[in-house]
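Field reference: sequence -> structure
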Amino acid sequence: MIPDPLQQPDLATAARLSVAPMMDWTDRHCRYLHRMLSRNTLLYTEMVTAPALVRGGAVHLLEHDAAEHPVALQLGGSDPVELAEAAKLGQAAGYDEINLNCGCPSDRVQSGTFGAVLMKSPGLVAECVAAMREAVSVEVTVKCRIGVDDQTPDDVLPEFLGQVERAGCRRVSIHARKAWLQGLSPKENRDIPPLDHDLVVRMKQAFPQLHVSINGGIASLDEAEAFLARGLDGVMIGRAAYQRPADLLAGADTRIFGEASRPPEPEDIARRMLPYVERHLAAGGRLNQVTRHMLGLFAGRPGARAWRRHLSEEAHRDGAGPEVIEAALSGLACAA
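Structure field:
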């Protein structure tokens, strides 16, 4: 069932559970799949840089399906004027929220003076937030780390949050790890710096008016419910939601949002994706651009390996179409 825009939750409610923006993963095809699994969860784009939109004219990066809502655009940048222009483009494209990336640790992002390096410049982040809020009517939010390099998170995070709150930001997502801008790769920065979930809980207590979502190392709805019970407003899940989408998202509407609905089965979701696949192919797309996000749909279930193998081997072939997914589903039935 495609979500009804008139029945969507408000953003503060949707943010009780969100899927983190992830480069090369949370593109529009991934988000469409995730929306088929949960109609309430807040979805985020991959980071789109403000220079690419404003100077490069890459507005095709803003394309998305109406079924994805509620959906937020994450922007990367550090120039308030440019970010304001990019935010206007995002609002015009129909996004429900504009999010500023202050958490990505990659070298490419650092060289552009945005991402996690902005944790060192809370005043600049506040200027960026204020400029974007002035430019658009949709909500402007921030995703950050607890600190970078040799910073002491207990000292720098309250200062950072205080400045962005005074600039008008009402909702933040905090990845509960420091980012080491020198010495660790982006992949290592997702695992090696220790998690400090308790610090994020303390920040919610220190900033009761802020809507605070916690991110980092959360791999189940049980954990999400536990963090909500500790007083946090939302939980943002990254890799687990991508790698095991049915486990994390199919039960979200019932467990996190209180709906009396029956969680969809992965087989049903795969079939619901077929009309979308057909539209994508008719527009000149390739099957594997969609199915690469579906590989984990049956994770932990009988036949999951055969499902992944069939899609991986067949979906990239010239002329591959919905029959590849149908054949993979038939293989699942044989394995059951």
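Note: The radius of gyration is 20 Å.
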